[in-house]
Automatic annotation (TrEMBL):
Protein name (database record): TetR/AcrR family transcriptional regulator
Keywords: DNA-binding, Transcription, Transcription regulation
Ranges annotated as DNA-binding: 26-45
Pfam families xrefs: TetR_N
InterPro entries recorded: Homeodomain-like_sf, HTH-type_TetR-like_transc_reg, HTH_TetR, Tet_transcr_reg_TetR-rel_C_sf
Length: 196
């Protein structure tokens, strides 16, 4: 039994965005790889940007649902356990999303069009930072993080480090990034020394 067209389009878009980059993955090529017409693609997605956001939301490890869950229940588990889980998910997300999005930054027009579409859809790369800040603020109100800690800076540092890990390799392979679990634990313990 064949998958519904929307699922095939998402799979094809994900594969092409990973292999040839977002800039070169045209809707025509995505539709062809999905075995449908370009008109069928546009029945499910209003634009290439909407398709890109759908790939990020539906095909890559998710951060926002975890952050929303943690904001709703601050005080559950330790702050360290929660942040390590967030750091693991973020590191995996950025590891998979950067190869897709990297081509955006090579073309100014494409980047500007993409950023305008993200604003219109109410999304963008700042959303996980804001979600993590909300979680940290909830923990701060619960007294588990220092009252004077800058929760926005802490969220930016944690997620920025997770994003940077995607590029943290040596060309000769002598300094690959540490395994995700090791990286997440060390990062969070270091961050908590500053905000606990």
């Amino acid at each position: 039994m064949q998958k519904p067209a929307r699922g095939r389009i998402l799979e094809a878009a994900h594969e092409l965005m990973l292999t040839i980059g977002l800039a070169r993955a045209t809707t025509k090529e995505i539709a062809k790889a999905a075995g449908c017409s370009e008109a069928a693609l546009y029945k499910h997605f209003a634009s290439k940007e909407e398709l890109f956001v759908s790939v990020l939301k539906e095909r890559l490890p998710q951060l926002n649902p975890l952050l929303e869950e943690l904001v709703a229940r601050p005080g559950s588990r330790s702050v360290e356990e929660n942040l390590v889980e967030i750091a693991r998910g973020a590191a995996r997300f950025y590891e998979q999303s950067f190869p897709i999005a990297a081509s955006l930054y090579a073309e100014t027009q494409l980047r500007n069009r993409h950023e305008a579409a993200m604003r219109e859809m109410g999304t963008g790369p700042h959303m996980p930072i804001l979600g993590l800040e909300r979680y940290l603020h909830a923990e701060q109100k619960a007294g588990r993080i220092a009252a004077d800690a800058d929760t926005f800076a802490a969220a930016s540092l944690l997620l920025g480090a997770c994003a940077q890990r995607s590029f943290a390799y040596d060309a000769d392979g002598s300094h690959p990034p540490p395994p995700v679990d090791e990286f997440a634990t060390a990062l969070v313990r270091t961050l908590l020394k500053g905000i606990s």
